[in-house]
Amino acid sequence: MENFVFIAVLFAALCHAGWNALIKVGLDPLSTTTLISIGSGVVAIAFLPFVGIPATAAWPWLIASVVIHLFYFAALIEAYRSGDLGQVYPIARGSAPLMTAAATTFIVGEKLNLAGWMGIVVLVAGVFLLSARGGRELARIDRRAVGFALLTALTVCTYSVVDGIGARLSANPNAYSLWLFVGIAVVMVPYALWRDGREVIPAMQTYWRRGLAGGALQVLSYGIAIWAMTVAPIAIVATLRETSVLFGTVIAVVLLKEPLRAVRIAAALLIVCGLVLIRVQ
Description:
Blueprint: H1 3-22, H2 29-47, H3 59-82, H4 85-108, H5 114-132, H6 143-170, H7 173-196, H8 200-205, H9 208-228, H10 234-241, H11 244-254, H12 262-280
């Protein structure tokens, strides 16, 4: 992986942490998810005239990704409704890179060397440790929450592989990503109205500016990742995206004045070690 691609994906992870922090406005998971989907869709539409249309070969993959993202959001929403963030997030985001690495090895034929695999495992271990925050009591496991968290991880793995292949076939990854965000917004709004039609739209009206800003960051974040998957191994890009939890912790400590626990320092060191191993693979 070239230095520019490596740094670009880390910047995408920073954007991912940024929009997650930006949209924590106290809404329920469905309203929050729909708000950011609409915001990213609006931003994508504004830029469509400048990027054109993906190649015909990419459209089946793009449409498949839209459907998979709908299942992703549905699973994530149910996971957060059933369990706590400290239980759901590390399972959902930590398991996905390992699944993606295995899937790309057998489906796409991408081969990682020992340093690459070690980097993924070490970085994922740091994500699990950092997400758990060290002081959280997770002895009482909610099976329903864990089940939906694992389903979420599976959908993350699936759309990562699908988008990696689709973007490579598109001959225009920027167009692919923008049309993808439009498609996600198109399916998320009816889904939200079907699930909670009387409440979800009024709940979002107050925060539409924040949703638009968060949507712009999401387009930038995943748009960079989709481009990176056309020039680097999909599994490596998917794993590097999870460094967003590290940037999220920096935001929490520096801006929100949360305590810097020893476990956070240890987890950050693991993530940095994983980054070094991935960079030299």
